[in-house]
Amino acid sequence: MAREQLGVLSALDSAKTQWYHFTAIIIAGMGFFTDAYDLFCIPNVTKLLGRIYYTHPDSLKPGTLPPNVSAAVNGVALCGTLAGQLFFGWLGDKMGRKKVYGLTLALMVFSSLASGLSFGHSAKGTIATLCFFRFWLGFGIGGDYPLSATIMSEYANKKTRGAFIASVFAMQGFGILAGGIVSLVVSTAFDHAYKAPAYKVDAAASLVPEADYVWRIILMFGAVPAGLTYYWRMKMPETARYTALVAKNAKQAAQDMSMVLQVEIEAEQEKVEKIGVREQNSFGLFSKEFLRRHGLHLLGTTSTWFLLDIAYYSSNLFQKDIYSSIGWLPPAEEMNAIHEVFKVARATTLIALCGTVPGYWFTVAFIDIVGRFAIQIMGFFFMTVFMFALALPYHHWTKKENRVGFLVMYAMTFFFANFGPNSTTFVVPAEIFPARLRSTCHGISSAAGKAGAIIGAFGFLYASQSKDPKKRDAGYPAGIGMKNTLILLAVVNCLGIFFTFLVPEANGKSLEEMSGENEEDEGGDSVEAQASSTRTVPV
């Protein structure tokens, strides 16, 4: 049987959608805009980095990043993100969401600027400096995952909570789109200002000295949106759920939310203290009680996010390689260095515009209508279908007349990733765990996702290499080829369907109903009933 909810939390759950909801979405969402921009703008410039630092004078083809360097440049930010998710997720539960929130943004701003200012006397020195700062950029980005999701879930009302959290995550789509647009604008401006022939016409002249500014400007622009929202992050009050349920300060929680909601809220200190001493509100992360009540939930959120990110990041970070393999991008020697940036950015922008961005907002529109479970199952299912449809007749898609069909199918995989598990895996961990462990558990879940992303980023790089030495990138061993790699990704997506059944449906329920924080403790019956009921998934 449920206990009576704290007045301040009931007020939040039943609040009508107000201006402060949209303010919170924008403040939290701009962090994700920056996250996506910084993580996904790097594929637009890696080919340019290869030309600048690894071109051999007598080579018939322009230089490319060696395998280990390419893996480091693409993957080091993901390693930082994983570490940041675990650290800041834990810190958000220990110190409070607000105290840590500004720190992650400041770290992103500094590291974005520093990445563009990477220096060195040699190629190795410059790339090493770039990787160092991109690790710390990733560390800051990692903190934004658990903190933004937790803050938005704790501010939102019960009716539209899913849409609000998904809206924060949907800003990723605009960040990916902005990465492409900024790359297009910068490369177009430099290409017009500094005319250069194609590499095969004049290898030396195809790379103008000013090309070194192109990648630096693109990377540094990521600091702009983050910097613009720093002040407003610092002005946000701490969430009432942290203040009341974790810090045990009912007066401060009521005071903060009275200002936010523009209503009078009574401070209920006695009720807060009673809730805090109950056994089901005091167990830790590594306790048997947590394992019994939330062990399967945590396995579900970590496994689904892990499997999703293997497919999602491998496809996203290496779009340029997929486009080259089907012949949508011209051979590198037929372009100058800056024009190649333009061609890669144009392709990624088109995919983002047609598949990535709409997918996020379809989730926002439908998540509180059909629920998290249905969207996640549907997304994994269609990702599996479209990956197999790309992989099995792969030779058919490589023919020139079929390239448009390939791109449509490829865009649909991104659409159903975002109108599917890429959004729901972010939303659900912020809804189903107790307030004192919410940020930590979201950090663990998202870190599992980044572990999958690292496997996807590093593994795809090698696995997708052709068995034919003539079609292989310089320095790479033989892989299983693009066709078999896509088949493997389809199987990974299929596994995600089955692990989704471990994740509970939170649609229409309060955070305390999902976590059991307001359950009566009479003989343990109701607690046991709650634990089993939250494992029931509507099909």
TrEMBL record:
Q: GO terms for biological process?
A: arbuscular mycorrhizal association; cellular response to nitrogen levels; phosphate ion transport; response to symbiotic fungus
Its predominant location is membrane
Instruction: State its location(s).
Output: Membrane
TM helices/strands, residue ranges: 20-40, 69-88, 100-119, 163-190, 213-232, 344-367, 373-392, 404-423, 443-464, 485-504
Q: Which SUPFAM superfamilies match?
A: MFS general substrate transporter (SSF103473)
Membrane topology (UniProt)? Multi-pass membrane protein
Q: Name one GO molecular function term.
A: phosphate transmembrane transporter activity
Q: Is Cell membrane found in the keyword set? A: no
Record's Gene Ontology CC terms? Answer: membrane; periarbuscular membrane
Query: Where is this chain compositionally biased, Acidic residues type?
Result: 514-525
Describe the location of the Major facilitator superfamily (MFS) profile domain by residue ranges: 24-508
- What keywords are assigned to this protein? Membrane, Phosphate transport, Symport, Transmembrane, Transmembrane helix, Transport
Q: Which InterPro entries match?
A: MFS_dom (IPR020846), MFS_sugar_transport-like (IPR005828), MFS_trans_sf (IPR036259), Phos_permease (IPR004738)
Q: Where is this region: Disordered?
A: 512-539
Write out the biased-composition intervals (Polar residues): 529-539
Per the similarity annotation, which family is this?
Belongs to the major facilitator superfamily. Phosphate:H(+) symporter (TC 2.A.1.9) family.
Full protein name: Inorganic phosphate transporter 1-4
